[in-house]
Amino acid sequence: MSRIPRIVILGAGYGGIVTAIRLQKVLNYNEADVTLVNKHDYHYITTDLHMPAAGTGDPEKARVNILKLIDEFKVDFVKSTAVQIRPHEKKVILEDGTLSYDYLVVGLGGEPETFGIPGLKEHAMNIRSINSVRFIREHIEYQFAKFKREPDRKDYLTFVVGGAGFTGIEFVGELADRVPELCKEFDVDPSLVKIYNIEAAPTALPGFDPELVEYGMKVLADKGVIFKIGTAIKECTPEGVLIAGDEFIKAATVVWTGGIRGNHMLDDAGFETMRGRVKVDAHLRSPQFENIFIVGDCSIVMNPEGKPYPPTAQIATQQGECCAHNLVAAIRGNPLKEFTFVNRGVVASLGRGEAIGVVGNRKFRGWIASVLKKLVDIRYLYIIGGIPLVLRKGRF
Amino acid sequence: MSRIPRIVILGAGYGGIVTAIRLQKVLNYNEADVTLVNKHDYHYITTDLHMPAAGTGDPEKARVNILKLIDEFKVDFVKSTAVQIRPHEKKVILEDGTLSYDYLVVGLGGEPETFGIPGLKEHAMNIRSINSVRFIREHIEYQFAKFKREPDRKDYLTFVVGGAGFTGIEFVGELADRVPELCKEFDVDPSLVKIYNIEAAPTALPGFDPELVEYGMKVLADKGVIFKIGTAIKECTPEGVLIAGDEFIKAATVVWTGGIRGNHMLDDAGFETMRGRVKVDAHLRSPQFENIFIVGDCSIVMNPEGKPYPPTAQIATQQGECCAHNLVAAIRGNPLKEFTFVNRGVVASLGRGEAIGVVGNRKFRGWIASVLKKLVDIRYLYIIGGIPLVLRKGRF
């Protein structure tokens, strides 16, 4: 190539933004032309969205302006929505233009997986963006206001959360904390409010330490959460959910956190996927197109036992670092490095002052775990934006 | 009477609460048995409701716990809703019981008058209670959240306020202040938001000084309010309003402030009314039943020109004082006094730091008028609850 190579990064989630930040550090002047494309002009901290969704945290704390993270002399930022990838033409179609690339990084994030359950796509809300969590927060508050006008409508005060994975558990924890505040604000008897957490799997937080899961469920049950574990949602309607055993739970609010699949654009573009996610090679590339790297929720990486790692912020961040390294190596003609996931520990928040976590071989619970959770968040802010970002967005 | 007379006060609005407070001051021990009945356990400051409705003020500031205002050793408080007055039996039917009285004070407040405009009763919201203004506030915020999910729905960002009387004008003033905050919070382009104030009468604030009205409308128009004066609403639907000239304004929010009528219970009980309001005698009594006093929005008092005074907090408060005096006089066999309304001035707020007012012969505008407005509010808090209430609920 005589001209400098063009790198396009789609999506400024964990994988995309870390790739961009790393590239701007490592690339030399005029070594490559990097363009980051994102729908919004901000990056958001997905692992924190359960708080603004419940109304216990400010959405502003969960997002960062992209122009505060990237150096515009080194990375171009385009605020637009990608609509199509054309791997054979090395082009990306945006809603308002086209970009050509030599190397593409797909960090488009996931979409809710509803497993074909009727009505879930149409009637359930999802915790997946700043807009969606502001919507959920307003929707919840509105139900309390509506209930005061129609006191027979107990379903306004019934909240169904489908899925007891990380997002589901963390969200019900926050919601259980928020309910007493809302009851006070709207003069509602707290005993009328019901929070259901419904999970088809035989346990909450599958794969997590069973002893900690038991502890966590007890903490949440004490806060009023009603668990229906090993219970599938069979259908979602505008009136509520039908669950296994043909019980119908009337609820004006259904939030679905039960699954993530890859972005539909990958299927549309002819990538071979499993639930929309591409099983990448050892260097995080598409097995079909070696100039396309895939990071975050759109990618699958297998663990040593041959099972996919769950899509988390932690793995996406590590992929971003590796992806940037490999892009630079590819441009310089150096050998690429293999991606290896290093589990730095997992912490699930259970609301105010309570959490459960595993770091290495050690288990944590209670306030220590909740401090750990904050440290994980702060560490991430530090990685992407240094101390200034920690001070601006950290929750202390 | 050998036993002590029983006084029942229906409603703890301006007229009712002032009657109760005055009675507990003036009556001697065991001179009468006073019962105050109210739907909620709080009194609210109706003249302030435009703020929490728009979201610019805390609803808590606009209400006061009734038990902080009355002395339970002197006045019994019953939290219940009156459903029927039986004047011939001297009984009041509550939703959960019955009360007998020797003297009744009807201070039930008004109901929205929709002048038979189709759909207004069903689809428009009203600024008339703490519950209703919390509902309006949540409804407005929800529209912004919904718009972010459906950006084609400009009607989510269109707000129609029917009526440019005091409530309408004060509400659009607050709403115009609130919109920029909401746009910032929800990342909405402020130019997409439309606030219409529609009034059938040939002027806003009919009866108010025309020069001040012109000034006020200019202030509000500069904040973005679109006035349609001399324009009747012909119909309200779930999609918006049809106005004179067959223009349809698509709007997900319609707030109706265009009129007040008396409580339906008066008509039901056989009182002679004009739009549900009873033209009381010189002593504030029903011309049909001399043991029934009527105060506030359910009563009509004529001005010296033979026209009804508009129903305001000011007149209701003065009626409460006179009513208490006459109840005591009636019990003691003293002559009753005639009610005379003393206009202490009128101030209309136009949002943050702006107002228009007339006190005596002097006109006020701008920040001086807005300070005056605050003084009016503080004066009322002082009347009902002394300095402690001013400190707790005053807006400084």
How would you characterize this protein structure?
Two copies of one chain form a homodimer. Chain A has 396 residues and is α/β, with parallel strands linked by helices. Chain A folds into two domains: 150 residues, FAD/NAD(P)-binding domain (3-Layer(bba) Sandwich), CATH 3.50.50.100; 137 residues, FAD/NAD(P)-binding domain. Helix content of chain A is 33%, strand content 24%. The first copy, chain A, has nine helices and 24 strands. In chain A, the strands form eight sheets. A five-stranded parallel β-sheet of chain A has the order 5-2-1-9-20, covered by helices on one side. In chain A, helix 1 packs parallel to helix 8. The longest helix of chain A has 28 residues. Chain A is globular and about 70 Å long. Chain A starts with 5 loop residues before the first strand and ends with a helix. Chains A and B meet through helix 4 of A and helix 4 of B.
Average predicted confidence as pLDDT of chain A: 95
Count of all domains of chain A: 2
Largest interface: A-B, 18 and 18 residues
Strand line-up across the major sheet of chain A: 5-2-1-9-20
CATH T-level topology of the largest domain in chain A: FAD/NAD(P)-binding domain
Name given to the CATH architecture of the largest domain in chain A: 3-Layer(bba) Sandwich
Separation of termini of chain A? 50 Å
Annotation, overall tally of beta strands of chain A: 24
Summing up helix and strand content along with how strands pair, one would put the structural category of chain A as: alpha/beta
CATH class label of the largest domain in chain A: Alpha Beta
Estimated radius of gyration of chain A: 22 Å
Q: What's the shape of chain A?
A: globular
Helical amount of chain A = 25-40%
Put simply, the count of helices of chain A is: 9
Oligomer: homodimer
Strand percentage of chain A lies at 15-25%
Largest sheet of chain A at a glance? 5 strands, parallel
